[in-house]
Inverse folding.
C-alpha cells in the first residue's frame, strides 16, 4: 500500500473518486490526471482504462488504482 508521500511521487494512473449520490449513483474516474468519465461499476472503470490505452488494469493494486471514498465494491452513497 502506498502512503501519502509515495502517492505524491508515484501517483496511480487511475483514480476513482467518491460516489456521487445521483440516480443511479456513479463515480468519476480520472486517468493520468484527466477526467476520463463516469463509472457505475467496476466494468466501467476497466472500459475507461482500456479506452485510455492502459493495459495493466489490476483493480486491487494500489499502484494502479487509487480508490477514494471506498473500494471497488462501494457504488452507493
Amino acid at each position: 500500500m502506498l502512503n501519502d508521500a509515495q502517492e505524491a511521487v508515484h501517483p496511480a494512473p487511475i483514480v476513482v473518486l467518491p460516489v456521487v449520490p445521483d440516480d443511479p449513483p456513479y463515480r468519476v474516474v480520472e486517468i493520468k490526471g484527466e477526467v476520463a468519465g463516469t463509472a457505475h461499476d467496476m466494468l466501467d472503470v476497466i472500459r475507461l482504462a482500456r479506452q485510455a490505452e492502459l493495459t495493466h488494469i489490476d483493480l486491487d493494486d494500489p499502484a494502479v488504482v487509487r480508490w477514494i471514498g471506498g473500494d471497488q465494491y462501494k457504488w452507493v452513497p
Summary: DSSP finds two helices and four strands in the chain. The two ends are 25 Å apart (CA to CA). The CA atoms of residues 21 and 77 lie 6 Å apart. The beta strands are 14-20, 26-31, 34-39, 65-67.
